[in-house]
Amino acid sequence: QLMSKRLAGVDFDALDYDTRQGLIDYAYALATKYGEGAGALASEMYDALAELSDTSVPAALPAQTATYAEVAKAVNGTIKSRNAEIISAAVGRQVKMVGVDTMMQNALRDGAEWAWVLRGDTCAFCIALAARGWQRASKEAIKDGHAEHIHANCDCTYAVRFSHDLDVEGYNPSAYYKMYYGNGKGSPDDKIRALRRRIYAENADE
């Protein structure tokens, strides 16, 4: 919302260098401030899960906030849309990334398990990730220091557990497995495209 307010009244057709840099600087300040908060909250959640599981692990360490270069790339990559909501969502993704990275990096450190848990309206790729179920945290899930899959306007997130007795209410990987693998043969991309077409058909009226 703060980024959207800052973008209000911006003339994208006459966007000069100073204005663009001012937007990037503002976005970086937001990503840093709220990213630090996201990292702190995720650390508290991680520690609480460990305590709930009666697991002795070091205190969680918050992940690094987005770099200036990462924020600049997000803003420059979306500013051509001339849409304040799209630009703001890209900045919001930088904030959310810190929380998710915190959970994943600590899970990798401590050998915990993770799962991709769906929330709200979900895309085909998110369903494909959720279909994998609980799995041991590995370096393959973290690329360039960040969690594998976080996109703008997505409410889904990684959940972490230390014990098989702990689960997430409503998380049903078996159902997601059927949705993903029940879309015919072919490569993973073929299955995702088929699932995307199915989701679109079911929600075409909306």
String of helices and strands: HHHHEHEEEEHH
Which word captures the global form? flat
The largest pleated sheet is described as:
3 strands, antiparallel
If strands are numbered along the chain, what order do they take across the biggest sheet? Answer: 2-1-5
Question: How far from one another are the termini?
Answer: 25 Å
Q: What's a concise summary of this model?
A:
With 206 residues, the chain is mainly alpha-helical. It contains seven helices and five strands.
Describe the protein.
The protein is mainly α and 206 residues long. Helix content is 54%, strand content 8%. Helix 2 (17-52) packs parallel to helix 4 and helix 5 crosses helix 6. It is flat and about 55 Å long. The protein starts with a helix and ends with a helix.
